[in-house]
Amino acid sequence: MEFDNALRDAEEARLAVERKWFEGVRPECRPSDQDISRMKARYHYNPEFFHIAVVGSAGAGKSSFINAVRGLSKQHPMAASTGIVETTDTVTRYPDPSPISQMIWYDVPGAGTPKVSDWQYFNDMGLYIFDCIIVLTDNRVLESDLTILRACEQFKNIKSFIVRSKSDQYINNMVCERMPPGFDIGDPDMDDETRSLFLQTKSEERHWFINETCQNVRMHLERENLPPKKVYIVCSDAMLAIVNKSRSSKAIDEAELLNDVKGSCGSVRGRGVESKSSLLDCQSDPRLAVERKWFEGVRPECRPSDQDISRMKARYHYSPEFFHIAVVGSAGAGKSSFINAVRGLSNKHPMAAPTGIVETTQTVTSYPDPSPNSRVIWYDVPGTGTPKVPEWQYFNDMGLYVFDCIIVLTDNRVLDSDLAILRACEQFNNIESLIVRSKSDQHINNMVCERMPPGFDLGDPGMDDETRSLFLQTKSEERHRFIDETCQNVRMHLGRENPSPKKVYIVCMDAMRAIVIKSRSTKAIDEAEFLNDVKGFMLTRLEAGC
Q1: 395 pLDDT exceeds 90?
Q2: Which domains does the chain have, with CATH numbers?
Q3: In what order do the strands lie in the sheet with 159-164?
Q4: Which of 111, 224, 235, 536 could form a disulfide linkage to 144, CB 3.0–4.6 angstroms apart?
Q5: Between the CA of residue 205 and those of 93, 199, 208, what are the distances in Å?
C-alpha cells in the first residue's frame, strides 16, 4: 500500500510538471554559489569596477549603443561589431576608452535568436553577477524585456534601466507616414513648402513619440506588478555627440541617462550577489525527465484535433471560395502597415488596420481586399513575444493551421519565433509560407547615416551639394549590401534549422502601396515579385478546389 501511494504521488508530481510545461509556465531557477563564482571568473569581474550589461532582443542596437556611450563610431578599431545579422555571439567585454573611467560595458547576445533563445536568458547569460543591467528596446516592450526586469528585482545589488533606442529613426519613420504620397526623406531636391511641412510634422511627431513611449512602458510595468521606472529615450548619434562634449538636435534623454548610470556606479559596486529567494532544486525525483526538458527549453509538440480545426475555421469565417493569408511575426515588425500597403491603403485610410508604438493588434483581425474582384482575405495576427501574446504555442493558439498562406514578416534579425512558425508550416502540406523582410527603406537609410560624417542629419533641409552627392553614392552602395546580407542571413538560418530553402522578399510599405495602386517607386526591391507569387499561389489553390 505504501509503495502504491508513493507511485501515485510520483505520477501526480510528474503530471503537474508536465501540465505547466504544456501551458508554458516558466520555472524559476536560482544560481548556485558555484554558478556565481564561475560567471564572475568568465567575465573577469573586479569589485574595483562597475560592470554594465546591455541586454535586449536581437536587433535592438546593443552594439551601436555600447559604441556610442564609449564615444566611438562604429568604424573605430575599438568599436563593437554591428550589422544586419546578430554580430554578438558571446558576451563581450568593452572597457571604457577613458583611462580614469571605472566602467566596463558588456555586449550581450540578443534574446530570441536561434542561437540565444529567450528561455532562461537571464541565467544562461549569467546576468546575476552584473552591477547594472540596461534593457534596450527599439520597438515594443517584449515579454523577454519584462522577464529580465523581473529577474533584476530578485537581486538587491543590480541596478536596472530601461532605454528606448533608435529614437531618431522611429521619429523620421512616423513623419514619413504623415507626409504626402511619394515623399522621400532623403530627397536632395526637396522644395521649400515640403521642407517646411516636414519640419513642422517632425516637431509634432517627436512630442507624440516621447509621450506614447513613456505611457507604453508605464502601462507594461504596472500590468506586470513591477516598480515604476523612467524610460530613457535615446539615439546613438546624439549619445555619441554628448559623450564627446558636442551637441545634437536629436538629443532627448542621453545626458540624463549618462548622469544616472554614473550616479549608480558608487551605490552598488563591489557587492556580492544578494538573492531575495532561495535556489530551486532543478534535479529531483520522478519529475526529472520532464523538468530536464522544461529547463532546457524543449517545446512539447501539440497537434490540433479535428474539433480544433473546425472551431478555428468558424472563428475566422474560413471559406474555400477565398484565399486566406495570415501575416505573422514579432511585435513591431510592421504587420498592420504591411497589410495596409498590400491592400493599397495608407495607414491613415479609414479602412486601414491600426498602427502605432504599442501592439495595436490584440486579436486576429480579418481585412478583405478593397477590390471587389479580389478573392484574398488578409489576417492581421498579434505579434509574438509581447506580454499578451507569449511565444509559447503561438502557432497553435492563434490557429495558424487553418490558413492557406502564412507570411512571416521580420523587420530585423531572423528570430527563433520566426523559425518556429516556418517549422510548424512544414508539418501542414496545405500551407504556403513566405518570408518577407519589411522596412527595407528605413534600414537602408539607417545604414547610410552610420557611414556619413558625424553630425549628418537625413532630414536636414540645408544639405549642401557635396553632402548630397556623398549621400546618394553611399545609399546606392548600402542598398546592394543590405540586399546581399539579408539574403545570406536568411539562407544561413534556414540551413541551420533545416526548413525548406526559401526566397526572402525584401520590401517597404511605400513601394508596396505604390505598386498596388499602379504607380512607381524608387524604393522598390521585391514588391512586384512578391505580389505576383502570392497571386500564383492563390490561383493554384482555388483552381484545385482546396
Answers
A1: no
A2: 18-173+209-268 (3.40.50.300), 305-544 (3.40.50.300)
A3: 92-95, 103-107, 50-56, 132-137, 159-164, 231-233
A4: 111
A5: 37, 10, 5
